[in-house]
Design brief:
The protein is an alpha/beta fold and about 800 residues long. It is built from 31 helices and 30 strands.
């Protein structure tokens, strides 16, 4: 039996603490799910060497939340969507293999499944919050008061009727939950049926029970204009039952116990009676004779203590107090021994004498694993921790060798070789780092997994990536282009134009290792800025990008604060989660440093969600503009036109409805540092958008699919590379940037000659961390062939297409104006 703790992420500029607790029976509990959690699973899976097995988001059985905030739930909606879609795909494949009914009939049948699980309320309003009806959930969430309200608010932009979430708020103990007991029984029965005979079922009999410890306290608002609010800090204790002793086969043989069922009876604690083959007499053997003594269960405490007030509450916890005092003075062994405490506690609290003394009261045998939570932006900067997203950072470094002005290299620091920290105290302190494994079982291996201590950023990483770039021919080709004499370097140092466009995410749908989801930072001539879509992880990617371009003599914290305050407006194109889940962190961190609300232009679904979000400072941090109220036809005009001009120099900002999902919009903005800028959001090609944006200086257009995948584009209501280029021609655009690439296909799409030469304008392929200026667009376009050498196509870059779906798409494509038909939009 094996059990372990895996650190997924720690506090850094672009991540927050999260860990995975793996039970002996294989079930997985995730503690906190901040932005980037899905990407951390992908990194962890590719680096796994600990025997945990494949790490997928959909393999998580339970999520525990220490509090409700962007740093704990920012990635939860995306995780739920991914898990639900994976399970839905599996269910459909099973139905298909077993002779499933037609889609309409299947929907009717599965609707009954949803009603039976969660009641009619869920079916009507799409809420993920379900009643406790005894059914087995797809995901269990344990969190503080407000967890259900948060999950219910997600109905405004997401619903998965076939995915069932059971939520427990406040005080909860799984050992007292009858539903949890019955669910575990059914899981074991299902696993046994699937796997056939199983020797004693020992693996399934050991699982972690959970007990939550909610501490109510007054949380100080980040804004001086908002009074403290009463909230809960959640800590957790995970524990197993006492671990049965090992069955002593040699001892059983010595006592002539017949092999077979009697072994199983002895393992289960029963005595056996049989005829001794040597003496031909009846003989009784007890469990104590052939089974080693059991050992105490394993205890893991996860502590979230944001203030000393919460510490006082934790000191009163009977559950935690039962582990204090060190080794037991009684002859009787304790039922559970505390092995490790994981501290989601700010470093400023952890280092206080009061907190250290409390930790010391648990005895010298307990390890203390620190995952310090961030109190502020200053905390993130002071901790100076590298990004956990190795693949994305490596890609940024690799591209920097092609041109460091367009692709600034992320700055790295190295962790120390030893995670154990000696600070003069008696505590055994282990500094958490991404992908660190702590083994809980077997006890003979308890402690740090030595193979996980290696820094994910090896000292030779930059040299290795430089060699790869050189060997690919990309650096040489880029140098040839730059030295041709006809190409601007794009780095006019004397220019007073502060305009720039930074891409914080260029992928579609779900985060992947190499591309984050959608986000763009547009800086104006006066130094203020706006964001175009704010996908999960946008602020973290932006901070990481800023860090790589800061002069050495600049105060980083001052500059970060100034630039965050300088974000005066946000445009969100449509309600899909991959375009706006980063808004919570942006609003929270910006409101912590300034009191001026930003202008938020978005579909009304997002405002419904934010108005239900429990943090008052969030609701006061923006001025709402419904995209419908700023349509291009001039019926209303942008209600914030005056403020947009005063703050950003924008002379016009209008929305254009496009075909993607309900309430999807493109935008055309005049007066930016790039001139007229048009952004498509997600959509099928739109002639109306091309007309409104006619003569645009810079078109940013989604290109989710490669050429030749038009059927897929129709089904998913996206555009291909060629379709985006043709829209740029219809729009008479002066430059085009392609973005929002499918995560399933090559890292850089092919630009067919006939598309590229349809109108000779710069065509740029966007990457995460790419930094464009008005005078670097031509260079970025010319360097595309060099960048392509960094990413040769591979067989794994494409998937088989669904023939039935292609047939449906061809039918839609054969109908002129199909996407204007009611019910298709």
């Amino acid at each position: 039996m094996t059990a372990s703790i895996r650190i997924l992420t720690v506090t850094s500029l672009d991540s927050n603490p999260s860990l995975l607790l793996v039970s002996p029976n294989g079930s997985k509990t995730l503690v906190n799910c901040g932005e980037g959690c899905q990407r951390s699973f992908l990194e962890s899976a590719s680096a796994s060497s600990s025997g945990i097995g494949t790490l997928r988001v959909s393999s998580v059985n339970r999520v525990c939340l220490t509090h409700i905030g962007h740093d704990s739930v920012g990635g939860l909606p995306g995780m739920i969507l991914t898990s639900a879609d994976v399970l839905d795909h599996v269910a459909k494949e099973i139905e298909k293999a077993s002779g499933a009914p037609e889609p309409e009939e299947r929907r009717d049948k599965t609707a009954g499944r949803d009603n039976g699980r969660s009641g009619n309320q869920r079916k009507r309003n799409g809420s993920l919050v379900a009643g406790d009806d005894g059914s087995m959930p797809d995901l269990e969430i344990v969190g503080p008061t407000g967890t259900k309200t948060f999950l219910h608010s997600l109905r405004h932009f997401m619903r998965r009727d076939r995915f069932h979430v059971r939520t427990h708020e406040g005080k909860y103990a799984s050992s007292l939950d009858k539903n949890a007991t019955s669910q575990n029984t059914r899981r074991k029965a299902k696993r046994k049926k699937k796997g056939g005979d199983y020797d004693g079922g020992k693996k399934d009999e050991v699982n972690f029970d959970i007990e939550s410890i909610p501490i109510e306290y007054d949380c100080e608002s980040v804004s001086s204009h908002v009074a403290p609010r009463r909230t809960h800090a959640m800590s957790f204790v995970f524990s197993t039952a006492p671990i049965p002793g090992k069955f002593l086969v040699d001892k059983a043989k010595e006592l002539n116990v017949p092999r077979g069922p009697m072994y199983a009876q002895l393992k289960s604690g029963k005595s056996v009676t049989f005829i001794d083959a040597d003496t031909n007499t009846e003989k009784t053997v007890t469990t104590e004779q052939v089974v080693a003594a059991s050992s105490p269960g394993i205890g893991v405490a996860v502590v979230y203590c944001p203030s000393l007030t919460v510490l006082n509450g934790l000191k009163l916890s009977e559950t935690l107090s039962s582990f204090q005092g060190g080794a037991s003075t009684d002859d009787k062994k304790p039922l559970v021994e505390l092995e490790v405490m994981v501290h989601f506690t700010p470093k400023s609290i952890f280092d206080t004498p009061e907190y250290r003394a409390w930790c010391d009261s648990f005895g010298s045998g307990v390890d203390h694993l620190t995952l310090h939570s961030a109190e502020s932006l200053e905390t993130r900067v002071s901790l100076d921790v590298d990004s956990p997203f190795l693949s994305g950072i490596s890609g940024g470094i690799r591209r920097s060798f092609v041109n460091e002005k367009l692709f600034p290299s992320p700055i790295l620091k190295q962790y120390s070789d030893d995670s154990r920290k000696g600070d003069g105290s008696k505590l055994s302190i282990i500094e958490g780092r991404p992908l660190l494994d702590y083994v809980l079982m077997p006890k003979s291996r308890r402690g740090l997994n030595e193979s996980s201590l290696k820094d994910i950023y090896s000292p030779a990483l930059k040299d290795d990536l430089h060699k790869e770039a050189m060997d690919s021919g990309a650096v040489e080709q880029a140098s040839t282009i730059m030295s041709s004499g006809t190409m601007s370097s794009g780095t006019d140092e004397s220019s007073t134009n502060l305009g720039e466009l930074i891409f914080t995410g260029t992928g579609s749908a779900v985060p992947c290792k190499h591309r984050n989801v959608t986000g763009k930072y547009l800086r104006m001539n006066n130094g203020n800025s706006m964001l175009l879509d704010v996908g999960e992880g946008t602020v973290g990617q932006l901070l990481r990008s800023w860090k790589s371009t800061l002069p050495g003599d600049v105060n980083a914290i001052h500059e970060y604060r100034s630039r965050l305050e300088g974000i005066k407006a946000v445009w969100i194109s449509h309600p899909h989660a991959d375009h706006h889940l980063g808004i919570l962190r942006l609003l929270a961190e910006r409101s912590a440093i300034c009191n001026s609300p930003l202008i938020l232009m978005a579909p009304r679904d997002l405002f419904d969600f934010l108005n239900e979000y429990h943090e008052p400072e969030i609701r006061r941090s923006f001025l709402a503009v419904d995209c419908f109220d700023m349509l291009h036809d001039g019926r209303c005009g942008n209600p914030m036109a005056g403020k947009l001009y005063d703050l950003l120099g924008i002379t016009s900002c209008v929305s254009i409805p496009v075909a993607h999902c309900k309430r999807s919009f493109a935008v055309v903005i005049d007066g930016t540092s790039f001139g007229r800028l048009s952004y498509s959001g997600d959509c099928r090609p739109s002639n109306r958008f091309a007309g409104v944006g006619n003569g645009t200086d810079l078109l940013i257009h989604e290109a989710t699919f490669e050429n030749g995948m038009e059927e897929d584009a129709v089904l998913k209501r996206h555009s291909t590379v060629g379709e985006a280029i043709r829209i740029s021609s219809k729009m008479n655009a002066k430059a085009l940037v392609l973005t929002h690439f499918s995560q399933r296909y090559p890292k850089i799409p092919l630009l067919e000659d006939e598309d590229h030469h349809e109108k000779r304008i710069p065509v740029v392929v966007a990457f995460d961390f790419m930094r464009l200026t008005p005078d670097s667009l031509q260079l970025a376009s010319q360097l595309v062939p060099a960048l392509r050498l960094l990413y040769p196509p591979s067989k794994s870059d494409s998937d088989d297409q669904d023939e039935a779906g292609k047939a449906t798409a061809k039918q839609l494509m054969s109908v002129p104006g199909a996407f204007a038909v009611r019910g298709v939009l």
